[in-house]
Amino acid sequence: MSALGRGNLFSRAGEGIALAFDAVRANKSRAALTILGIAIGVMVVIAMASMISGIQGGVTEIVSRAGPKSFVVMRYFRDGIQISDGTDEMSPWRRRPRLSRHEANLLRDLPAVQDVNVREGGISRVSYRDRTLGDQTFVQGMDPVWLRVEGGEIIDGRNFTAVDAAAAAHVVVINQSAADALFPVGDPVGKVIKIFNLPFTVVGLYQDPQELFADNDSPKIIIPHTTFSKVGNFDRGWISIMVFPTETATQAEAMDQVTMALRIDRGLRPGEENTFDLVSGDRFLESFNSMTQGFFLVMLVLSSVGLMVGGVGVVAIMMISVTERTREIGVRKALGATRGEILFQFLIEAATLTLMGAVVGMILGGLIALAIKSFTPLPAIIPLWSIVAALAASAVTGVFFGLYPANKAARLDPVEALRYE
Q1: What is the 8-class DSSP label of residue 411?
Q2: Separation CA 336–CA 320 (nearest Å)
Q3: Max Cα distance, the chain (Å)
Q4: d(CA 309, CA 409)
Q5: Cα angle 257, 92, 149; round to 5
Q6: Per-residue model confidence as pLDDT tens digits over 284-342
Q7: Could you count the other beta carbons within 10 Å of the beta carbon of residue 19?
Q8: How buried is 312 (Cβ within 10 angstroms: 0-12 exposed, 13-18 middle, 19+ buried)?
Q9: Residue 383 CB burial class (10 angstroms; 0-12, 13-18, ≥19)
């Protein structure tokens, strides 16, 4: 294309943009409806995409923190644990034996396994003298390597050790929230609190990681799993075992060894289905991503409604614009303007109207994402694809809904248009 041709193209585009702003000023109520509809559609895309992207990033970080080769052994996993009170046919997990401490110790001795972390939880009253965290405090039993899974750090005192775990010692690590509630004054390390109506010595103060799902306002109580399994009051059978392969072993090798060891220990014959599930980080992320598809569907429906409302407004404004400028169109055609030039100008005008709404929507969506990030634990992140998609959808909406009035303007007979009053 020549420089002159490009100049004419940019000139017509600039003229269409200027006319779009004139149309907004001349038809404020209709333009407001158009801009509001597009803005709502774009706002939904930006806000929901930021939440989903933030959650995905947080989940990915949680999964990867324990190491790219680590995996979890669970009693039952099918896109999440499914529990039903129906028959055995409706509740396949009921036919599976519970995982046990014995099996965790068995896995720890495998050649491809460096270590394992056992996790189990239950509800208890946690108190210190006349202060209490309540009767429904969640207490977790884990192995000494739990920090590798949870992240964070011990900021005062120490973690419980392998010796503590072997002796089923009554020691506990608490986070800052629990410490503030139980010990508003003084150092919590060395104090004795009651868990499951038994005395436990606080040996460490734990700092939660600043990330998704790390609710720093909730108390965290962690004791050795060996102790938990003896004194805890909980629904048994939902133990999970995090497996850490050795540096030299691959994840596949470790999973094969774990599968073989558990099948032998449980007496499963060749051809029988496993009575346990191995869940790698990739499988967990696939399960999570499948759950987010519902959010994307909601986002698509809500944004489509907004864009449709905006599109109807585009048709209304552009039809008024064509009617008001009929004589002008006739003059331009008489001076040599082609149908394509008239069509292009009106399409640019329509796309500009919807892009104005997109800009407003992106600002509102960005403010919502900022509020979510500031006032919730969700690290809302606005992905680049959502901005590109919002702008593209807005422009396409303007062109699609502006095509009819633009085509009507391009097909006007110049003689009849010049006679229009």
Answers
A1: T
A2: 24
A3: 101
A4: 23
A5: 45
A6: 667 666 767 777 777 778 788 878 888 888 788 778 777 777 777 777 777 777 777 77
A7: 17
A8: middle
A9: middle
